[in-house]
Write a structure and sequence with these properties.
Blueprint: H1 2-16, E1 42-44, H2 49-53, H3 65-71, E2 80-90, E3 93-105, H4 108-115, E4 125-128, E5 132-138, H5 144-158, E6 161-162
Antiparallel strand pairs: 1-2, 2-3, 3-5, 4-5, 4-6
Amino acid sequence: MKKICLVLMIFLSFYGCIQNSTTTKSLSPEYNLEASEIPIGFKYSKINDESRSIGVTDNPGALNDEFIINIYKDVDIDQILATKMHVFIEETNPSKELGLIVIQYVSSSSLLNEIKKLKKYSDRVYLISDDALFILWSDANIYETEITNLKNRLIHRLGLNEYK
């Protein structure tokens, strides 16, 4: 029961915080997810009325500062250039989700300084490039195969390294 509550809280945090952000610049094009990288059998989740009522307008979409602060206790928002979150649902089981969060920093040194503040969770995969952090997650860690496949595709295409 505690795990279900935790998953629900994380889920609501993601949706509650996908709003307009002060990090308004666009993500570097190479960091955008390619159509071929969307896990097989999944599609982008639609924005429902509840999500729309709290400012969610796009999927994928930018994250607001409040969401980023929930990831990092003492984050320096000025070091973040752009963000994007992708949320997918399984076509046959739309009640479960998996997603990708991309946070691009103003420089590689900013990434290295800020990532030290990251509160890491064992059920997420963290990848880094020279100036960006990629966080892969899924509901109740049920999509391990899909997360692993997406991780491998991103590593191959972008030359990312896993951050542990």
